[in-house]
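Hi support team,

I've been running sequence recovery on a batch of backbones for a student project. Most finish fine, but this one hangs at about 90% for roughly twenty minutes before it completes. I'm not sure whether the input is malformed or the queue is just slow. I've pasted the structure tokens below so you can try to reproduce it. Let me know if you need the job ID as well.

Thanks,
M.K.
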């Protein structure tokens, strides 16, 4: 493995809203800082992402969080770099992007330095844009294979996300707090997360509670759909995730598209058994029948069947709880992520 202690890393993202990508900008940059000389982060000015990341690293002397002004963001999308960014990249040893749109402008200016994309999505239509990157770090094995087959070479590497609990005691076998059997779900309230169909299932399961954490454009519609059903509650944005997970017996991911699934790792780490649709990300995390259950997308009957089974079979829940915690501790800790990241960087020729 190469020694990166003298290297300067530059990270660029165009994302403005807080979400899964901002979480991984934070974790990947933190991991980089523990093995490199310096990490420069560039984010859109006056964006939620910029303020969040700056606050997180305000006391970290190895990480500089900078902003991209409007004209710089506009130029980046067109395939050009401002003088300021050219200077920064010229002094960098590795350049990392969190958006496929950045590839053309970065490569046009710096053809000799490794330009690496953190690819957070499953959007096939973006594959053509990946040609401008030296390497691509994909969050699931299926997309990694798809990218490599498209380019007919090892362009993409599998780099799963992680969770970073500062206090390792957060890993525990969950103690039941609620009297009525309760299922939890969490995420941005958008179409692809499948919350509408999940509510339809629980309308037919009045004996089981459903708690949905998160906010988004579908909030009003989902509130209307669940109105009058006492077993279904929409909680809005959840600040205390530990409190949320302590109130549920099972976590359910009902997505149509899920490139990875941080919330699945969080649930597992806290000893909550998981059931998920067969999206690419969850299928990497869940070993069906060992540390959780995978069901077919849009198969309402199968999901309903397992929820009823979980309610009755406490032994099965204990098995998934124990094995889920073990899986996260082995594969998805911050230390494991950092080791994987620098191992991949060590294999990239400069």
């Amino acid at each position: 493995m190469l020694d990166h202690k003298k290297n300067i890393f530059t990270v660029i993202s165009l994302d403005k809203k807080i979400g899964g990508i901002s979480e991984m900008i934070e974790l990947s940059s933190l991991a980089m800082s523990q093995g490199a000389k310096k990490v420069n982060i560039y984010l859109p000015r006056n964006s939620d992402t910029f303020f969040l990341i700056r606050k997180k690293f305000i006391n970290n002397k190895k990480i500089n969080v900078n902003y991209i002004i409007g004209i710089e963001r506009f130029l980046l999308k067109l395939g050009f770099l401002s003088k300021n960014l050219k200077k920064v990249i010229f002094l960098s040893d590795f350049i990392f992007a969190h958006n496929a749109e950045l590839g053309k402008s970065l490569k046009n200016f710096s053809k000799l330095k490794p330009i690496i994309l953190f690819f957070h999505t499953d959007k096939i239509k973006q594959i053509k844009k990946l040609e401008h990157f030296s390497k691509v770090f994909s969050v699931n094995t299926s997309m990694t294979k798809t990218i490599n087959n498209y380019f007919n070479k090892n362009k993409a590497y599998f780099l799963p996300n992680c969770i970073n609990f500062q206090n390792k005691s957060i890993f525990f076998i969950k103690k039941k707090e609620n009297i009525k059997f309760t299922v939890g779900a969490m995420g941005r309230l958008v179409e692809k997360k499948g919350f509408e169909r999940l509510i339809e299932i629980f309308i037919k399961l009045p004996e089981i509670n459903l708690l949905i954490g998160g906010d988004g454009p579908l909030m009003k519609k989902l509130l209307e759909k669940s109105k009058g059903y006492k077993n279904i509650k929409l909680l809005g944005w959840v600040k205390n995730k530990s409190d949320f997970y302590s109130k549920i017996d099972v976590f359910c991911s009902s997505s149509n598209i899920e490139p990875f699934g941080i919330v699945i790792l969080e649930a597992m780490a806290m000893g909550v058994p998981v059931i998920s649709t067969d999206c690419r990300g969850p299928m990497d995390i869940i070993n069906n029948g060992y540390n959780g259950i995978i069901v077919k997308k849009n198969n309402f009957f199968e999901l309903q069947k397992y929820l009823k089974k979980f309610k009755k079979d406490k032994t099965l829940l204990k098995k998934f709880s124990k094995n889920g915690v073990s899986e996260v501790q082995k594969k998805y800790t911050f230390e494991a992520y950092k080791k994987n990241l620098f191992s991949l960087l060590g294999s990239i020729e400069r």
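--
Follow-up from support: It reproduced on our side and the slowdown came from queue contention, not your input. The chain has a mean pLDDT of 91. No action needed from you.
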